Amino acid sequence: MRQSQLLMTTMRDMPSEAEALSHQWMLRGGYIRQTAAGIYSYLPLGWRVLRKIEGIIRQEMDAAGAQEMLMPAVQPAELWKESGRYDVYGPELIRLHDRHDREFVLGPTHEEVITSIVRQEISSYRKLPVNLYQIQSKYRDERRPRFGLLRGREFLMKDAYSFDRDWEGLDVSYRSMYEAYERIFERCGLTFRAVEADAGAIGGQGETHEFMALADIGEDTVVSCRDCRYAANLERAESVVPARQGSVDSVKVDGDSAIERVVTPNVKSIQELTDFLQVGPEQLIKTLIYQVDGQLYAVLIRGDREANETKVKSYLKAELAELASAEEVVQATGALVGFAGPVGLSLKVLVDYEVASMTAGITGANQVDVHLKGVRPGQDFSLEYIGDFRNVKEGEPCPRCGAPLQFHRGIELGHVFKLGTKYSEVMNGMYLDSDGREKPLIMGCYGIGVSRVMAAIAEQRISGERLVWPMSVAPFQVHVIPVAVKDEAQMNLAEHIYKELIKAGLEPLLDDRDERAGVKFKDADLAGAPQRLIIGRGAASGEVEWMGEDGVKVNLPAAAAIQRACEAAARVRD
Q1: Does 524 share its domain with 379?
Q2: What is the DSSP string of 334-402?
Q3: Which end of the chain has the lower number of beta carbons within 10 A, N or C?
Q4: Are residues 70 and 187 in the same domain?
Q5: Digit-coded pLDDT (tens) for 191-236
């Protein structure tokens, strides 16, 4: 393409409203423009990148045996009520009514629709397994859209759904999609990790993995082991179950000692309590009151730990878990927030493994300005419900091999789920097996945020003052830049190179604009082609300056530069 004809309106300054590098550079380079908060238009450069990412996804999905289709974005609300997710999904679900007052939703995902389709189309085991996918816009009413394409209200997504006769079949489908995802993200040039994850609002009855691009702007924390392949999202990362500890010296409790009441005026936080009592936070037992699907629970963790709401929700097989309000805490404990404790509490108490292993600790007394010393797990409160209810910390031992865990920030690119019968049972998605018995379809779900992938690639490929797209998704593979368009020798050589690259099957961008060299090079930094051929004073002797992804420049004869560009593109195709 000739740059004089390309709609590429660049910005010289960093947009002040953009926090993420990818957001800044894609606004500056004319890839996207905001239409409303969290809603973007894709200009030609951005659309070219998206189409190439889609192409890679389609190739790998088709190779894995999935079939492309397209479902409506506008979905009948009764399908969501049938699945039970209408109320559960929350305010992110965009609801609307038509002129006949029939209720619809804008699809954030398509489990309900695909189940309703397949239950009509497949009634026999002979048509199984089947895997269906689409690439389509999705809609979620994010409370706070941010980071450009990383958290928007409208976004492009690939979602696939597998249907099998049994769990063994689902294992095969799941592994096929998992491996396809690895190939997709490798071909997109991403540095990523597959991590164990929580199923969230999608739900499921088996393993689930997220694919995370490592990037500082990422909103998720990736926990990984330096020695083995263990990796998990922080909300899912397992803590090691500790052995029972000996007595805590500063508490001075033996088996016959009574609980000691300690007056702690205006001492509410963990830091205030450790300062007041002159003890370490690991000697405290923190009691948190949670509202879980309409019922209150107490969760006990050590004073130096953070509670993990996802683990609480998973343990109780609940849909929603959140900290109780101040009023609910008073109602349940008789005291203000900061003074709750497990002794004499009438709620069910979930005890973290670390707390259960303590000989004694310090807790709230369910009375304002009072704490208790010498509280013994298993004697002064029940250990009926023990589990892993906390976030792991960096440096803790890996639950698989014991090596120290490492933390990274990550951007979620994709998610694969084993749904099992979560949707097929409640929505009557049944088939007749070979024995003539009616059975529920066994489902899997596999999503990729296509527009998120684009942003994640940009986050990882911005180096200094230059964005360099991988060859596989670059809007243009080679940027041909004559320094002076009024120089006949430069333009003749530039036109020759441009036509030879097109003839070789490449996608070059020829900067035929009558602009200063500095403007051209600044725009080239934003256009992000992985290779540049710069035609300057050496044009008269047929020599050009070739620059690759690493920014290193080499003077080459024009024919050698063309060959090098073609070889780089061929490596990607192969």
Answers
A1: no
A2: SS-TT---STT--SEEEEEHHHHH-S-EEEE-SSTTEEEEEE-BTTTB--SEEE--B---TTSBPTTT-
A3: C
A4: yes
A5: 999 999 876 655 556 688 999 999 999 989 999 998 998 999 999 9
Least confident range from 38-42, 78-82, 171-175, 244-248: namely 244-248
Instruction: Report yes or no on 243 lying in a domain.
Output: no
Cα–Cα dist 444/181, whole Å: 14
What whole-number distance in Å separates Cα of residue 450 and Cα of residue 457?
11
Same domain, 17 and 132: yes
Contact 390, 306 (CB under 8 A): yes
> Nearest 5°: phi and psi at 4?
-65, -20
Is 80 exceeded by the pLDDT of residue 377? yes
- pLDDT one-digit tens code per residue, 275-285: 999 999 999 99
Instruction: Output the CA angle 41-47-51, nearest 5 degrees.
Output: 135
**Paired tokens of 310:** 């996802």
CATH value at residue 345: 3.90.960.10
Residues 85 and 57 sit within 8 Å (Cβ to Cβ): no
- 283 lies in the same domain as 335: yes
Of 534, 528, 522, nearest to 45 by C-alpha is 528
What's the pLDDT at 114? 98
Do 300 and 417 fall into the same domain? no
Structure tokens at 452: 């998120």
DSSP 325: P
Q: Per-residue pLDDT for 255 more than 50?
A: no
Q: What is the per-residue pLDDT across 304-341, written as a single tens digit (0 to 9) for each?
A: 999 999 999 999 988 889 999 999 999 999 999 999 99
Q: How far is CA 372 from CA 81, 132, 212, 320, in A?
A: 48, 59, 44, 31
Q: What's the CA gap between 315 and 309, in Å, rounded?
A: 10
Domain that holds residue 502: 476-573
Instruction: State the pTM of this model.
Output: 0.89
User: Residue 534 is part of a domain; what is its CATH number?
Assistant: 3.40.50.800
The answer to whether residues 342 and 375 belong to one domain is yes
